[in-house]
Design goal:
Helices cover 74% and strands 0% of the residues. It has helices spanning 5-23, 30-36, 44-49, 52-81. The termini are far apart.
């Protein structure tokens, strides 16, 4: 049975986040991300994200809702304080 593509994407994203946090976006090879995510297919990352830029975009998209919610909460707090 073929693996679930969404599970594969999430495993790749999780591996990339960890490695990027440790060594930076340019300090990690795509092959290494594949390996840490447990992918046997050497092109899994390219299949799902096309390239490093696509992977970084996916990581940012994952965190955007939480960042937006925190930003809006801070703006609401600022607005309700009546500070000009």
């Amino acid at each position: 049975m073929a693996p679930n593509p969404e599970v594969t994407r999430q495993r790749l994203i999780a591996a990339a986040e960890t490695l990027f946090a440790e060594r930076g976006v340019e300090g990690v090879s795509l092959r290494e991300i594949n390996a840490v995510a447990g992918m046997r297919n050497a092109t899994a990352l390219q299949y799902h994200f096309h390239d490093r830029y696509g992977l970084v975009k996916a990581i940012l998209a994952k965190h955007t809702p939480a960042v937006d919610a925190a930003r809006h909460a801070l703006l609401d707090e600022y607005s309700s304080a009546g500070i000009d």
